[in-house]
Design a protein that fits this description.
With about 170 residues, the protein is mostly beta strands. The chain has no helices and eleven strands.
Amino acid sequence: MAHGRRWRRTIRYELGLFQHEGRNARSGNPHRVFGGRTFAGRLTLRPFRPRKGLLRSLEGSVAITRSGLGEGLSSLRGDTVLGDRFYTANAFAKGGRERLGFELRWEPGPLSMKSEYMRLADQRLGQSVEDSDLPPLVATGWYVSGLWTVLKRDKSWRGGLELAARVEGLSF
């Protein structure tokens, strides 16, 4: 893995090569396939960081992972925050898996806004009845959140008061 920052921390990068996708991508089912050796990269830009003002904290990132995917049932799945499964892919995959993500963050004073879009695609090479390629199996997700710090945590107020909202979507 390699990481660093350049030009007064306005650009940050992270690159890595890993044995597999990680524990969260694996399924307990031995008939499900998951990614093998995985390349991962992220580039983050804070173009207004050297300046003062409202845009100083504006930050955008793009991230990608790519891995090989053996032939078998895709391990793509959807779980709730509490761990309940609501989607399991019942499609064969073969070829590769790619994840692409975009993030945007802005924290001007007591306000904070964040958003993310992500897309995962499992290739299905040679999976049709004619031994040709099928369209990839795709999952997309996004969220937008906002937070307003009404009262900061200090000595006179034991806790703080923050108002937050979040909207999100996930599709397969």
